[in-house]
UniProtKB/TrEMBL annotation:
It comes from the Bacteria. GO terms for molecular function: monooxygenase activity. It comes from Teichococcus oryzae. Pfam families: ABM (PF03992). PANTHER family: SIGNAL TRANSDUCTION PROTEIN TRAP. Residues 2-96 form the ABM domain. This is Antibiotic biosynthesis monooxygenase. Keywords: Monooxygenase, Oxidoreductase.
Length: 106
C-alpha cells in the first residue's frame, strides 16, 4: 500500500473557497487502477495559515506513479494553477509506503 499526501497552507479566510474547489472538482480517481480512497483533511490553524492535506491511498507505489503519468492525472490537475491565491506557496508532497497496518479487534 502507498499513501500520497499533499500539504497546503491555506490563507486565513480562504478555507471555504479552498474546500469548495476540492468538492467541486472532477478527480478522475475512480477510473484509475490501484486507487483505494481519497480524503481531504483540515488541520490546525496557525498564525498565518490553515493546514490542509489531500490524502490518497493506493494499492502500490507503482499504481500511484502510473496515475501521475496518466491522462486522468492531467485532466484532474488542469487549471490547478488558478487556485494559487488561496494558499501560501506550492503544495508539499509526501509519499509513504505502508509497512504496518493494524485493524480493529475481531
Amino acid at each position: 500500500m502507498f499513501i500520497a499526501m499533499n500539504r497546503f497552507q491555506v490563507a486565513p479566510g480562504a478555507e471555504g473557497d479552498f474546500e469548495q474547489m476540492w468538492m467541486n472538482r472532477e478527480s478522475h480517481l475512480h477510473t484509475v487502477p490501484g486507487f483505494v480512497e481519497f480524503h481531504l483533511l483540515r488541520g490546525p490553524m496557525r498564525e498565518d495559515h490553515v493546514l490542509y492535506a489531500s490524502h490518497t491511498i493506493w494499492r502500490s507505489k507503482a499504481d500511484f506513479e502510473s496515475w501521475t503519468r496518466s491522462d486522468a492525472f492531467r485532466a484532474a490537475h488542469r487549471g490547478a494553477g488558478g487556485s494559487k491565491p488561496l494558499y501560501l506557496g506550492p503544495p508539499q508532497f509526501e509519499g509513504f509506503e505502508v509497512i504496518q497496518t493494524v485493524g480493529p479487534a475481531a
